[in-house]
Write a structure and sequence with these properties.
6-stranded mixed beta sheet, 4 domains, 10 helices, Herpes Virus-1, 35% helix, 4-stranded antiparallel beta sheet, elongated, Immunoglobulin-like
Length: 576
């Protein structure tokens, strides 16, 4: 690096520190994203992101690979790093960051940043006067005296010197690109075999056998390739990406808005639902308190009635026992009338206490059923009900013909409806229901039953008897018989279907076949073995050829019945 470049890097570092201390806004194109300072020897990575050369050198290697036998044209060792901006894996030349291309546009931005700083610039040569111009080749600020001396010296007479005021007014700088091998020489030529810009001295010495042309003559051809890629392929893709990104942003904003709106709805619903649940809870507690007061009053009344009955009965018993034990015959006989009337009245009292086997209502029938629907509160569906009904076995009913009659081999059904003491159907299931179907004569012949809880106080019962006969049906709830249990069930034999045809006569149905027979007593002359309508014994209506029954939707009569009805019952009918 030349002394001029070292001096310029030092100026950039000082300028960056001043900006950081003063909090001034710095052109972002002049700042390295790695060190957050003005560029110092900016280099372009293969992903087209620019960083200081020393910042690139400080990056941790992402991968290090050695050259294989098949990669003879590749470096012996390839080092890659991750770009701090785009996180792309990029390859570093074997010579290190110095082998990367220099970003001269970034240098221009850095130079412009130095010009727009507040305060006058001092002369870099004499250090006394204020700088008024700048040598773009030497990269030094010059006062008026040093500028005239710079122009008179033979070595620097050809350098481009620009006024600082003019450079500031441009807003964009185009500094000459100098050769790194020959300081002060501008890269004006382009070596086509080496694909490199070179200076005059490089073209005369290092590239003398190469075809070097002025840079202005080849820049259009190489620039056209860049413009073509940008205009034809990258610009449309850029527009598509921007459009897609805009759609994603719109969708992201719409998603955020939708989520926030939905979250508000959820919170409002939760608040309303919590309020509804709280109101339902208070309603359940009020209902529970009402049941407590109601059952307490009933028990209080029952207690008062029992106490009064107990006092009356005890008084009557004590009087009668004292009369019998202490009274004389005359005393007993004289008090007999009133005593018997009182004792009879007490024995047939209007208040008949419950049997000892039945305990008073202790509230065990009050249940909270959390899964039961309880309607809506303020438009919100709620669950959980207080159920206070208990099953009254004397009020339970059974529906369906399957309880009285059935048929062999066919499924019978009936429904048990559990009811409370008021005769209302229970609103829930869960009762222990046991149903047994036992043959009346064959005690070991039981029928398997299935009980289905309909969860509404009713229970569907199904069974399939294997034998005909009389059965006993036991229906028990909570191990106690319901009213009417056990029931009598009459199971008839299996239904016999017809094996013949339903016809007007065997002559017509068989097409005049003489061998066709019929179950009816009808006959025909001429050797026919069946019947014909209008002939002797014909029933006068359509009938079954197998049994002679005149009812189409009927059961086929057994042979014993046919024998009693028709003298021809022993003849085998022909299925037509």
């Amino acid at each position: 690096m030349s002394r001029a470049e070292q001096k310029e890097n030092a100026e950039q570092s000082t300028l960056s520190s001043e900006h950081e201390q003063n909090g001034d806004s710095v052109n972002p194109r002049a700042v390295c994203n790695a060190c957050k300072r003005l560029y110092r020897d900016p280099k372009i990575l293969p992903c087209l992101h620019t960083f200081c050369s020393d910042c690139i050198g400080q990056l941790e290697p992402f991968s290090v690979s050695s050259r294989g036998p098949e990669d003879a044209d590749r470096p012996a060792v390839t080092v890659t790093v991750l770009c701090p901006d785009c996180d792309s894996e990029v390859e570093i030349p074997p010579s290190g960051p110095a082998g990367l291309s220099t970003d001269h546009l970034a240098l221009d931005d850095v130079f412009l940043e130095t010009l727009v700083t507040d305060g006058p610039l001092g002369c870099d040569l004499c250090g006394e006067g204020g700088a008024e111009s700048r040598c773009e080749v030497c990269c030094v600020n010059l006062c008026e005296f040093c500028c005239r001396a710079h122009r008179r010296q033979k070595r620097t007479a050809s350098h481009s010197v620009q006024g600082l005021a003019e450079l500031k007014s441009r807003g964009r700088l185009c500094r000459p690109v100098l050769c790194s091998f020959h300081p002060g020489q501008e890269l004006r030529l382009f070596c086509q075999p080496c694909d490199l810009p070179v200076c005059l001295e490089c073209a005369a010495a290092l590239h003398r056998d190469h075809r070097c042309r002025p840079a202005r003559d080849v820049v259009d051809r190489h620039g056209d390739r860049i413009r073509e890629l940008v205009a034809v392929r990258l610009r449309p893709r850029l527009e598509r990406l921007e459009e897609s990104l805009q759609k994603v942003e719109v969708s992201r904003e719409a998603l955020q808005a939708r989520v926030e709106a939905t979250a508000s709805e959820v919170r409002a619903f939760a608040r309303g639902y919590a309020s509804a649940v709280e109101a339902h809870c208070l309603s359940l507690l009020r209902r529970l308190e009402e049941l407590r007061v109601q059952r307490r009053n009933q028990l209080h009344l029952q207690r008062a009635q029992l106490q009064q009955a107990l006092v009356d009965v005890r008084g009557g018993v004590e009087f009668a026992e004292r009369l019998l034990s202490c009274g004389s015959d005359a005393e007993i006989l004289s008090a007999k009338g009133v005593t018997l009337r009182r004792l009879t009245s007490l024995a047939e009292g209007t208040y008949d206490p419950q049997p000892p086997t039945v305990a008073p209502d202790d509230g065990s029938g009050i249940r909270f059923m959390p899964a039961e629907p309880a309607g809506e509160v303020d438009g919100y569906p709620v669950v959980g009900v207080i159920n206070s009904k208990t099953v009254d076995l004397s009020r339970c009913t059974i529906e369906g013909e399957g309880l009285q009659q059935g048929r062999e081999g066919q499924q019978g059904r009936f429904t048990l409806v559990c009811r409370d003491s008021a005769g209302e159907q229970m609103e829930r299931g869960g009762e222990h229901v046991l149903v047994s179907v036992v043959h009346g004569e064959k005690k070991n012949c039981t029928v398997e039953t299935a009980v289905v809880d309909n969860n509404d106080g009713s229970y569907s019962v199904s069974y399939t008897p294997d034998e005909p006969g009389t059965y006993s049906v036991w229906v028990c709830v909570k191990a106690q018989h319901v009213k009417g249990s056990p029931f009598l069930l009459n199971v008839r034999r299996k239904f016999r279907g017809h094996g013949g045809t339903f016809h007007c006569c065997s002559f017509c149905s068989s097409g005049g076949a003489k061998e066709a027979r019929c179950g009816c007593p009808g006959t025909m002359p001429g050797g026919f073995k069946g019947c014909g309508h209008g002939h002797k014994g014909h029933p006068g209506k359509p009938h079954w050829s197998c049994c002679g029954s005149t009812v189409e939707q009927s059961e086929c009569l057994p042979q014993s019945v046919l024998a009693a009805v028709s003298p021809r019952g022993h003849l085998r009918t022909v299925e037509l």
